[in-house]
Design brief:
The complex is a heterodimer. By secondary structure, chain A is of the alpha+beta class. Chain A has a domain at 2-207. Helices cover 43% and strands 23% of the residues of chain A. Chain A contains 22 helices and 24 strands. Chain A has a 20-stranded antiparallel beta sheet, sandwiched between helices. In chain A, strands 11-21 form a two-stranded antiparallel sheet. A two-stranded antiparallel sheet of chain A has the order 16-17. In chain A, helix 3 (50-57) runs antiparallel to helix 7. The longest helix of chain A is centred in the first third of the chain and has 26 residues, at 2-27. Chain A is globular. The model of chain A is unreliable at 1-29 (pLDDT under 50). Chain B has helices spanning 3-6, 20-29, 36-45, 47-55, 61-76, 81-94, 98-111, 115-118, 121-134, 139-147, 150-155, 168-176, 187-196, 230-239, 241-255, 283-296, 299-308, 325-336, 342-351, 374-388, 400-406, 412-424, 430-441, 447-458; strands at 200-203, 206-209, 219-221, 224-226. In chain B, strand 3 and strand 4 form a beta hairpin. The longest helix of chain B has 16 residues, at 61-76. Chain A binds chain B through residues 389-391, 430-431, 433, 462, 464-465, 530-531, 534, 537-543, and chain B through 71, 74-75, 77-79, 83, 86-87, 90, 119, 202-205, 338-344, 394-395, 397.
């Protein structure tokens, strides 16, 4: 019975294809995907070189990493998965190829997705082999008709300008035009797309100047690209809120240069390239954050050679972030940047007033620092006498550079000791143990360390969260290091001495640089696995098994990140470059 | 009905059969609410076996308790009550011994130790663990354990009680709330109890005793004279007959009825939500329970007697309690047989007035009619609607459509009646039935419709009652 239906469907489709294809080919030779998308589309995703994506996905080490993953092994035995694999095997035999070859034949011409007003979605798949597309469609049609037996007819078709449109159920409709499949969630979007394909003079995305400009800005033909119309997206409340960080001084400090550029832009383009398991993403836009007169100009370097310093490297490093930020200028513009004086801001200023003995935070504290801010995050190792805290938090350190270390170092030391005194006083009020201050020396540098006494033996496993912290302040060669752990402070003293010796210079043009070491991050995920599972259970309501699977997946994903490098600058076209190197060693 | 007859064992018969409303009533009061298979099992097994299972559930309870003790201890290391609150709620949802958790919650309300004063998650977990361990045993033992709990002193801001300046807060709670109750003690007793508790200091979260700060003079406490210390004070208070009545009265309000006592009753469970009359059970009515409790000092035995009694299954008890927010939410999750994000739930329950580990006053949480006013009723509707929504803070984890499918309940009318059986003891409210009648036959009675129907059932007045 199935075979019978299949034959008839195949005949029908072949017939349709034979009628429509020559007509379309005659009417619209070589139309590009973007010409089929509406000019109102505000997001377009184009995978123009699927062959390169498939090539990377089917690399032996990727296949090995995926198929050996416990979650894949678990899914492999599920009925749905088995059914899908049977289908794949059928087509592999039918077209005498493997899965990669099959996908190449089916999608090799490219994939495009457009999102427009009214949640309209249009997807275009271009097959390398028209016959494969036709037969797969035929097969899906047969399945849809089999499933509906005894029910109302949910498979429907209609003709429009010589093209047959199909619907297998509510909320989706599609048509095949030669070797291309058009799929959309709204029927009128399909007819409009057919209109655009058959009448090249109708407005479409490719005819938009901003789209053309974004394509020109691409240095080379990317594997995939995303085009976003910021003039439209900025009107959406969530996007507007994301671009407006006025209530959060920290986010303003970190992201204002990029947000400023994107707020001024009409379009934003993201190009993706994939080479040897390294994914490179480049964001360009027509907006610029290079106006030093703006309140957000605190990230704008005054000299051409200035920029964020290269990231520091320490053992067990998880991440390093480096910014070019004029903190004095940032805080002087606070009334413009975040006009609301929140209780948090008032508290911060009051505390700074106490720590810095009444000095003006803008003019007498932040003005003493060079526009270099670096943050280092590293995994911790715990001494045996402390035990392992639960959760295990990474060490975090901030590195600044003082303009007049002779004058300012004592001011900083006094503020630091006052802060520790306040912490100890507050903890004492709650009958909690306090920090013991010490002045150890490392590599010739005497620094200030505060640490809790080791826990009593009976109280050792697991150690309390407080044992993640041994706050330290170190000052050397004009640098000021604030670290949450002793080990990180010592490692940074070594790294900074090395940097001074080597005479490292800033990365001109970049106002922000970040790097992430996937293996260290995965290691800390594994170390906190039990904590994360527990958290997942109460935050998501998952069973222990579900939580274990989700955290296992997270560890696998994080573990597959070899290295992530992000660089952002305001003066150049490529405002943000993200380079992700995958590590798929089993 | 005489007190003896009221507290005599209930015998199912033609006038009062062992049926779904009675089984559901028992499982709600002795726990939170039953899932469908537990409800069916209770109906099939009968009252005796069901009560036996409630009091002494089969299976490896120790393993469950040890697992959750581990989760709570680990959650306490970060010092916040949000995590431990979430784990306790999770425990209530998943426990194979719901009566134990229901009574732990009762003692939490009774002793009212709040983290607002304690400010230490580990101490709070230990404190609730103490309550759980003693929740179905000797009250005298439990009271003794609580009096030695440093969290009690921190909660009452009485972490130092010196001979020259006895702290009266703990003594006041011991007499007024934990013991004989108002009207059974005077200022002399309060001073004597406070003097008996001198020398007790909480230092670095541990209860310490300093002999030089203890007032070892003669004291007269509740008519008994001696050089009493803390242990003596606890013994004297716990053994006093008025204490037995105070505790029995609270157990009655927790398990039987908010404010209704020896009113006219029938063997039929009430079918409508009658107005709740402001009557408290008389001492005479409670006398059989009080005598038994005073003599044997066994909470579990009194609970068993209450749960087996004719009075418990009569109209005077049926739907005569308003569910607390915790009972409302945990009961729904248990009925739907899924756990939910309890971190969020704990927060929402706090907004409704039942912030676990943080009773609002030293008198515990509100109880009975105090749970419902215009604002909280909307909040309660919002809570159950969110819990049953397809998406949102509870991530659609409670899914009545899937559950109906698991129990092979298929046709729309059957699904509606089945949900009414599960959530409302079989009563499908007329307005709901009328509203849904048309949709039962239409094609758009989907999984989303079943969710909506369940939400409407949880918003029925009857669902607010335990």
């Amino acid at each position: 019975m199935i075979r019978y239906r299949y034959r008839w469907s195949a005949v029908l489709l072949v017939l349709i294809a034979s009628i429509t294809t020559p007509m379309l080919a005659a009417d619209s030779p070589g139309w590009s995907h973007a010409t089929a998308l509406p000019h109102e589309a505000y997001v377009a995703v184009e995978i123009s070189q699927p062959d390169r994506v498939l090539q990377q996905l089917f690399e032996p080490r990727v296949k090995q990493a995926v198929t050996s993953h416990p979650e894949f092994v678990r899914q492999r035995n599920q009925p749905d998965f088995l059914q899908m694999m049977n289908l794949v095997e059928y087509f592999e035999r039918r077209f005498e190829t493997d899965l990669q070859g099959l996908l190449q034949k089916l999608l090799g011409g490219g994939i495009t997705l457009g999102i427009g007003p009214g949640e309209q979605v249009l997807v275009i798949l271009e097959a390398e082999d028209e016959k494969v597309l036709s037969e797969v469609h035929d097969f899906l049609l047969m399945i849809a008709r089999n499933q509906e037996q005894g029910q109302n007819d949910s498979v429907r078709s209609a003709e429009y300008r010589g093209v047959t449109g199909w619907s297998f159920g509510p909320g989706q409709t599609h048509a095949i035009l030669g070797n291309r499949l058009l799929w959309t969630n709204q029927p009128q979007a399909l007819t409009a797309a057919i209109d655009r394909i058959q009448q090249a003079d109708l407005p479409n995305l490719a005819s938009l100047p901003s789209y053309q400009q974004s394509r020109k800005s691409s240095a080379k033909r990317p594997v995939a690209s995303v085009f976003a119309r910021m003039d439209v997206l900025k009107e959406l409340p969530p996007v507007a809120a994301a671009l407006d960080q006025q209530n959060n001084p920290l986010l303003t400090l970190l992201l204002a240069p990029l947000m400023q550029a994107w707020k001024q832009s009409d379009w934003l383009a993201l190009d993706l390239d994939l080479e040897d398991l390294t994914l490179t993403m480049t964001v360009t836009s027509d907006g610029r954050a290079d106006d030093g007169a703006l309140p957000t100009g605190f990230a704008k370097s005054t000299e051409a050679a200035d920029g964020a310093m290269p990231n520091l490297n320490v053992p067990r490093q998880i991440a390093g972030i480096s910014f070019y930020r004029d903190l004095h200028r940032f805080y002087a513009a606070k009334d413009d940047l975040f006009p609301q004086r929140t209780s948090g801001l008032i508290f911060f200023e009051n505390m700074m007033g106490i720590f810095f003995t009444g000095r003006d935070l803008t003019e007498e504290v932040l003005a003493e620092l060079h526009p270099e801010v670096r943050m280092v995050i590293a995994q911790q190792e715990y001494p045996a006498e402390i035990g392992t805290p639960d959760p295990q938090l990474p060490g975090v350190a901030l590195v600044f550079r003082m303009k007049r270390p002779d004058q300012f170092s004592l001011v900083a030391e006094e503020a630091w000791q006052k802060a520790l005194g306040l912490i100890n006083f507050t903890r004492g009020q709650q009958a909690e143990p306090g920090l013991i201050l010490d002045k150890p020396t490392h590599a010739g540098v005497k620094y200030t360390l505060a640490a809790f006494l080791p826990p009593e033996k009976s109280d050792r496993a697991p150690a309390e969260t407080r044992f993640n912290f041994q706050p330290a302040l170190a000052m050397l060669d004009g640098f000021l290091v604030l670290s949450s752990t002793d080990a990180l402070a010592r490692d940074l003293i070594d790294a900074l001495q090395q940097e001074t010796k080597e005479g490292v210079v800033p990365e001109a043009g970049n106002h922000s640089i970040a790097q992430l070491n996937g293996s260290s991050l995965a290691s800390i995920v594994r170390a906190n696995r039990e904590t994360l599972i527990r958290q997942n259970m109460v935050e998501k309501g998952h069973s222990r098994e579900q939580a274990e699977a989700e955290i296992g997946m997270l560890a696998a994903v994080v573990g597959s990140i070899g290295r992530l490098q992000i660089a952002a600058g305001g003066d150049r076209a490529e405002q943000l470059t993200i380079e992700l190197e995958l590590d798929l060693q089993p | 009905m005489t007190p003896q007859a009221a507290w005599a064992p209930y015998e199912p018969g033609p006038d009062g059969p062992w049926d779904l409303p009675r089984a559901a009533h028992l499982l709600r009061r002795a726990g939170f609410a039953a899932d469908w298979s537990t409800l069916q099992q209770a109906i099939d097994d009968g009252l005796d076996e069901t009560i036996e299972r409630l009091l002494r559930p089969p299976g490896d309870l120790l393993e469950f308790e040890a697992t959750f003790d581990g989760y709570e201890s680990a959650a306490a290391t970060d010092g916040s009550t949000e995590s431990i609150r979430a784990w306790w709620l999770r425990r209530m949802i998943e426990t194979p011994h719901p009566l134990l958790e229901k009574m732990t919650l009762f003692w939490h309300h009774h002793f009212a130790i709040s983290n607002d004063g304690v400010n230490n998650a580990r101490l709070m977990v230990r404190s609730i663990h103490t309550l759980r361990q003693g929740s179905l045993g000797s009250y005298r033992q439990l009271l003794g354990d609580v009096i030695n709990d440093p969290a009690l002193y921190l909660s009452l801001r009485s972490d130092r009680s010196r001979r020259s300046e006895p702290a009266t807060n703990v003594a006041g709670q011991l007499l007024d709330r934990f013991g004989v109750g108002p009207g059974h003690y005077d200022e002399h007793d309060l001073n004597a109890a406070a003097r008996a508790l001198t020398g007790r200091f909480v230092l670095r979260n541990e209860l310490r005793f300093f002999a030089h700060e203890f007032d070892d003079g003669q004291k007269t406490l509740l008519g008994q004279q001696g050089a009493w210390n803390a242990e003596d004070a606890v013994r004297i208070v716990a053994q006093h007959p008025a204490t037995a009545e105070n505790i029995v009265r609270k157990l009655y309000a927790w398990l039987v009825a908010d404010d209704v006592g020896d009113v006219q009753e029938t063997n039929q469970p009430a079918k409508q939500t009658d107005s709740i009359e402001s009557q408290v059970p008389s001492s005479q009515f409670l006398e059989p329970l009080v005598t038994q409790f005073h003599q044997h000092d066994d909470v579990g035995v009194i609970i068993e007697r209450i749960l087996r009694s004719r009075h418990f299954f009569a109209s005077a008890a049926y739907r005569r309690r308003i569910k607390s927010p915790v009972e409302l939410a945990v009961g729904l999750a248990r009925a739907m047989e899924r756990s939910i994000p309890t971190m969020r739930l704990g927060q929402q329950l706090g907004e409704l007035g039942q912030d676990l580990y943080r009773p609002p006053t030293s008198a515990g949480f509100p109880i009975g009619p105090d749970w419902i006013n215009q604002a909280t009723l909307i909040g309660r509707w919002d809570l159950t609607a969110k819990m049953l929504a397809e998406s949102g803070p509870y991530e659609g984890r409670l899914n009545p459509a899937t559950l109906a499918e698991e129990y092979q309940v298929d046709r729309p009318e059957r699904v509606a009646q089945w949900l009414a059986d599960l959530l409302l003891d079989g009563e499908l409210p007329v307005p709901v039935r009328q509203r849904w009648q048309q949709r039962f036959t239409s094609e758009d009675f989907t999984a989303a419709s079943i969710r909506q129907l369940a939400i409407e059932l949880t918003q029925a007045p009857e669902y607010q009652l335990a």
